[in-house]
Amino acid sequence: MKTKYLTILLLVAVVFISCGIEDNPLTAEEKYTVDTIFGNKLNDLRIYTDSLCKVERDTLFAKYADSMHTVRIKEIENLLIINPAQE
After folding, report:
1. Contact yes or no for 24/32 (Cβ under 8 A)
2. DSSP letters of 14-72?
3. How far is the CA of 47 from the CAs of 33, 69, 79, in angstroms?
């Protein structure tokens, strides 16, 4: 029980210590470096996701087209059941 309270007290202390005001903001050079690294990683990620889309495009297109076709056929069948054609 005592250990539980000590752990909670320690966690609260860590939160208050770590959430202080930042004493040393980033310099312009550091901001530029961070921005450049982020931009490069974002471009890498964009290239990677685009390549995944190109690889999977044909398979996904066929799958979704078949799915839409199935849904439309069921809608037509339901309409024919509700409103049968009169001959």
Report:
1. no
2. HHHHHTSPPSSPPPHHHHHHHHHHHHHHHHHHHHHHHHHHHHHHHHHHHHHHHHHHHHH
3. 21, 32, 46
Task: Retrieve residue 64's tokens.
Answer: 């979704």
Q: What is the DSSP letter of 83?
A: S
Mean pLDDT, 10 residues at a time, the chain of 87 residues? 78 73 81 94 93 86 88 90 70
* pTM over cut 0.85: no
Element (H, E) at 7: helix 2-18
Both tokens assigned to 49: 């996701």
Distance CA 53, CA 64 (A): 14
Task: Give the tokens for residue 30.
Answer: 């550091």
